[in-house]
Amino acid sequence: MQTDQRLVDGFGRVATDLRVSLTDRCNLRCTYCMPEEGLDWLAKESLLTDDEIVRLVRVAVTMLGVREVRFTGGEPLVRRGLVDIVQRSAELDPRPELSLTTNGLGLARTASALAAAGLDRVNVSLDTVRRTTFQELTRRDRLDDVVAGLAAADAAGLRPVKVNAVLMRGVNDDQAAELLEWCIARGYQLRFIEQMPLDAQHGWSREQMVTAEEILGLLSQRFELTEAEEPRGSAPAEKFLVDGGPATVGVIASVTRPFCGDCDRVRLTADGQVRNCLFAREESDLRTALRAGASDEELASRWRAAVAPKRAGHGIDDVAFLQPSRPMSAIGG
Q: Among 182, 103, 190, 188, which residue's Cα sits nearest to residue 145?
């Protein structure tokens, strides 16, 4: 009997969604992600080259059943070879769905080229539309650039344009409805994400996190929300119709309403490590084997072995939970 060649774990979950971090560097300094002075970036020689990234994406798509590839960071738009990586990935057969998670700063000048290269859509991080709050959260006065980037992505056809927002208690949690109204007016799909324990400072606390229940309560003060009838599947966001639709809003409750049982994601870091969970403390090295001359078959076999021991859940509620040593900027979203 032929063995399953896909990325299957011990609980029967199949990873078909690959998140590829292109860099750990970022041009914002969001308070919930990294300190103002930044971090010690990965050494250039440790990063996968453009050719290495494309080869591993090809192995994942043509040999391991991956159907969706999302390029992340850090901030992927600071990677010089991004457009070429997207184009070469779009030429694969079968062609994967290609998306990008970005802070939007460079989208105004790159959206058209990315769309032409084969990118399908974007997710843009935007936690507020108030300039002073944006500056407080990101430590940069770049709101206008993000707004322009969103408009450019929409104009280039990178739809649906999705906006990811994190609410911080006492900072922007009073702006949830305002942000939703702003997104609906422009045709963007907003998704609120519970703050996760992935900050470089390890300052996350459950008490300070704005929960999904609180988010829905804040939105319900201005809008009527009803659960969308479409099946959620493996999507991380619970989707709600806003005032009867067609507009929707999503809530990703990674902490309080985990969806690990339906997870279909696997991650590749910028330095070539496979992570079978966002919160994993173990990684599996593909870069060393790749640079030592491993065949595609060997790389695929190592990748399957990396996914197989994936745990049932992320374990945030476990008293023994330890935050990953790598912050989100070095893991990829």
A: 103
Are the C-beta atoms of residues 278 and 266 closer than 8 Å to each other? no
Does residue 61 lie in a domain region?
Answer: yes
Residue 3 is assigned to a structural domain of this protein: no
Q: Please tell me the distance from the alpha carbon of residue 189 to that of residue 205, in angstroms, as a whole number.
A: 28
Residue by residue, pLDDT tens for the chain (333 residues) are 456 799 999 999 999 999 999 998 888 888 777 776 666 678 999 999 999 999 999 999 999 999 999 999 889 999 999 999 999 999 999 999 999 999 999 999 999 999 999 999 999 999 999 999 999 999 999 999 999 999 999 999 999 999 999 999 999 999 999 999 999 999 999 999 998 765 555 555 666 789 999 999 999 999 999 998 877 666 788 999 999 989 999 999 888 887 788 999 999 999 999 999 887 878 999 999 999 999 999 999 999 999 999 988 876 665 555 556 666 666 665
**Is 37 part of any domain?**
yes
Task: Name the pairing type of β-strands 225-227 and 238-242.
Answer: antiparallel
pTM of the model: 0.91
User: Does residue 78 lie within any of the structural domains?
Assistant: yes
Residue 48's CATH number: 3.20.20.70
What is the extent of the structural domain holding 120?
A: 17-331
